[in-house]
Amino acid sequence: MRGMRKGEALRSLVLTALAVFVMFIILFPVYYIFVVSITPGSTLATTEFRLIPQNVSLDSYRDVLFGFKGSRISENFTGTIEGAAHIEDGKLYVINGKLIGKVKYGPFTGLTFEIPLSSAVFEVSAGENVQGQLKGNVKGLFVLTKVNDDGSIGFGLVRNLELTSGELDGTSFSGILLKGPTGRDYIVVRNSGKVTFTHIGMFVNSLFFGYLKNSLIIAGLAVLLTLIFVVPAAYAFSRMKFFGRDHVLYFYLMFTQVAGGLGIAGLIALYGMIVKLGLYDKLPVLSFIYAAGGVPFNTWLLKGYIDSISPDFDEAALVDGASYLQIIRHVLLPMALPGIATVAIFAFIGGWTEFILASLLLTEKNQPLSVWIYLLMGGIGRGIDWSYFAAAALLFALPVFVMFMLAQNYIRSGLTIGGLKE
Fold first, then answer.
1. Could you say which residues form the signal peptide (predicted)?
2. How do the domains of the chain map onto residue ranges?
3. pTM value?
4. How far, rounded to the nearest angstrom, does the alpha carbon of residue 289 sit from its chain's CA centroid?
5. 378-403 per-position pLDDT tens digit
């Protein structure tokens, strides 16, 4: 008896050690990429192999998340204007002043800027001629295309400038910016003033956020469309009887796999159809393609789960007068949440990681993170910043991990499917 216990303990120890070793092999690439991401100046193409990082730094993550690379910003702002001015014949002349503006993203301040005004002319509502120090509130559109290293504005524009309220020598007024001597009704800023970004502002205007937003739109729509198509289809194949039920889905599965094998020919045909229909560079179109491509497999997957749910629940709901849509909503969905969560995960991963169609059917401004990560590899052998790439790759994988974490509660819970009491 004691010998058997020792044997079982030894076997358990060996299996545990084997499991730990396998997990180490699986997770080691992730750990190594993490080490590269926090080690400045790291490289992959070298015989030097360090498991313990040295000179740890989060600069690569900071550059990815908050690195403003001079991307074009065009945002509405509110602010103040002040300086020496006078009103003459219904026009406000600002001779020597400054414009201070603030751009907000929801409740958060994204950036603030200050622009010197050597001259600006507003058409105002005041009827008398006065002069003095101007104080007022303004709003408009701030366009920024370049920021110098010292924080000054390399090149920017202020458009649609409106003086919402102003006061000069006791006179109150409002007005809009008029065309100046050069015939422009906007203010040009070159190598002057200053702009200050908050962390929110740097993140929202970073390259990473732009591609992240596109990826979330594409993957989110793909999940939504997949569930809209798959849930009713899986219910129909599982519960209803119709001609060809036992063969249609399997034929569709086989057909999509064969069609996928056409490779480049299928891509050319798809590209031609999208362009002919005027749907090129449309994010929802790409989501629809991803959802359509995953419908056969996901329908088959969810159908198998619904098959395990007793039909007695459906019959009881029908007896109570429920329609098929009510059965799906109030009976099927709560009981099939683990299967639906699995389908949602597959749909999200498919929309999140695909990059061939995304690079083919979208222009650069609408491309997702997957394409951007791939384009970062274009510098291989020519001084690519591996720390930056590793940080971007791990951040790219993070939403998939979060998706698994959110869905595992439903999958682990098992939602026991019982039967009706007789």
1. none
2. 73-201, 207-378
3. 0.80
4. 18
5. 655 555 778 888 889 999 998 888 87
